[in-house]
Amino acid sequence: MSQELSSDHVIETPAGNTEKSPEGDIDFDLDAIRLPQDFGASSGVKKLLTTVPVRKPNKSLFIRTHAEFRMDVSLLKYGTENDLYLVMPSMIAELEELPKPHRLVLAIDRTNTPFIWPLAHPDPEHPLLWHSSAMEADVEARARWIRIEANKNLGAYVMSVAQGQLSEPIWPDVPWNQLVSIAFKQKIIDSPDHVVAQKLRGEL
């Protein structure tokens, strides 16, 4: 039942099996397992975009906005988390004053993560600087990288422009209608039978 260490550092076990020495292989080739410089690129694999957040820009990140992927819609805030629901035009009257006009704009940050920025349309009779300054930021972000932050003393958003020569954003290769569909999946109020519409009528 004794074990002998052979000249090539192989241990003979009682069952006749062989094991490499626990000292490791001095000839192990590290280059064989080293990742290439472009390890982030998956050759022949296309990642599916399954989530598109609907949110305001993060105040610490620079963003750009798409010049064409934008549209005006009605949105409704609902629930304790103020979830945004897309309201079809045929349902606006039934939901009375709750839906508000917004502009959906495709935006992207420096990590090339896309999101949809819901910009509230300024009220023509009682415009708020919050709304108008956000609209101005969108215009600026079409051409260059900006960062926006809420200034409560001003009651408006303030912009900071990137000082470096940053590369252009890499927009997702997905049609605009598909991006909106992904962003608002199961959050489109399109009939009186929608669960949110029923709750607002006190039926649920």
Distance between the termini: 76 Å
| Major sheet description | 5 strands, mixed
Element order: H for helix, E for strand: EEEEHEEHEEHEH
Q: Reading side by side through the largest sheet, how are the strands ordered? A: 6-5-3-4-9
Verbal overview:
The chain is of the alpha+beta class and 204 residues long. The chain has a domain of 138 residues. It contains 4 helices and 9 strands, in the order ββββαββαββαβα. The protein has a 5-stranded mixed beta sheet with strand order 6-5-3-4-9, sandwiched between helices. It has a two-stranded antiparallel ribbon with strand order 1-2. The longest helix is centred in the middle third of the chain and has 13 residues. The radius of gyration is 28 Å and the shape is extended. It starts with 9 loop residues before the first strand and ends with a helix. The model has no long low-confidence stretch (mean pLDDT 88).
